[in-house]
Specification:
The chain is built from one helix and ten strands, in the order αββββββββββ.
Length: 153
């Protein structure tokens, strides 16, 4: 009986340690000084819009650092370089709504599609963003708070 207890507690410990390893650890500091972080919404007709997310550095980004993705508003998008100091990420949003068939008879609602709910890797507030980057080949995450929306000029 004592052997079963030992095996049981060992299995529980192993499982709990496995789930701890799956969490992404957020860095408290970014290795380079960030000048500004902001986003701009651009409407493309009545059916879609784009959020352009910008990160500007005071000095050019170091060679051993590569920006990978940005996690913002429960979405993720790759980062691309505009200049050595400025990077952008684009989040495309569709405002088009699917037509739903509503009827007393559930058989007539057969063609309706269930909504797709995406769960983000991070639990973020509306004005927070997580930056995924690699430094010397190691993937790291940095959380930025109080991100501002700049209106288009």
């Amino acid at each position: 009986m004592k052997g079963y207890k030992t095996i049981f507690f060992s299995a529980i410990t192993a499982i709990s340690l496995t789930f701890c390893a799956m969490k992404h650890e957020l860095q408290t500091e970014f290795p380079q000084e960030i000048q500004s972080v902001f986003y701009q919404k651009v409407k493309k007709g009545t059916e879609s819009s784009v959020i352009n997310f910008y990160i500007e550095f005071k000095k050019p980004l170091a060679n051993n650092i590569k920006l990978e993705k940005i996690y913002f508003h429960n979405e993720e998008s790759p980062v691309s370089e505009i200049t050595k100091n400025t990077f952008v990420s684009h989040f495309y949003q569709s405002n088009k709504k699917e037509d739903l068939i509503l009827n007393r008879n559930p058989a007539k609602e057969y063609g309706n599609k269930a909504p797709v709910v995406q769960k983000s890797k991070f639990d973020l507030k509306f004005n927070e963003v997580v930056l995924e980057y690699t430094k010397d080949g190691k993937t790291l995450f940095y959380k930025i708070s109080n991100v501002l929306e700049k209106p288009l000029r």
